[in-house]
Design a protein that fits this description.
Blueprint: H1 4-19, H2 23-36, H3 41-53, H4 57-70, H5 75-87, H6 91-108
Helix pairs in contact: 1-2, 1-3, 2-3, 3-4, 3-5, 4-5, 5-6
Length: 110
């Protein structure tokens, strides 16, 4: 795996590209990062956001699911997958994910 500071800088760069709606470039950075570290929930979640913004809901859902497999407490992936499932009409799954996020939130409260 890359040096941690390099990895953080690349992730930040990918986020900036996504924020600037340079979605193809953001996806390319994420994909290259996943080649080096295929088990990064952060990168998978960001790639899910990019795919969702590009109008690719099934790809986005898969990336969010992978992120949650690697990190079941990844709050951002939980929230986005719940919203996307709701938009896709999978209300039961969305409800379960919202409940899971609520339990996680309660657990993290002091």
């Amino acid at each position: 795996m890359e040096l941690r500071s390099d990895w953080v800088a690349r992730l930040q760069h990918a986020r900036q590209l996504a924020d600037q709606a340079r979605l193809g470039e953001a996806a390319a950075v994420c994909e290259s990062m996943l080649e080096a570290d295929p088990e990064s929930a952060e990168v998978l979640c960001l790639l899910g956001l990019v795919r969702d913004a590009k109008g690719e809901p099934e790809a986005a859902r898969e990336h969010y699911r992978q992120a949650l497999y690697l990190d079941p407490t990844h709050a951002e992936a939980l929230a986005h997958l719940a919203l996307l499932n709701e938009e896709c009409g999978d209300h039961q799954s969305a409800r379960l994910l919202h409940q899971r996020a609520g339990r996680l939130h309660q657990k993290l409260q002091p």
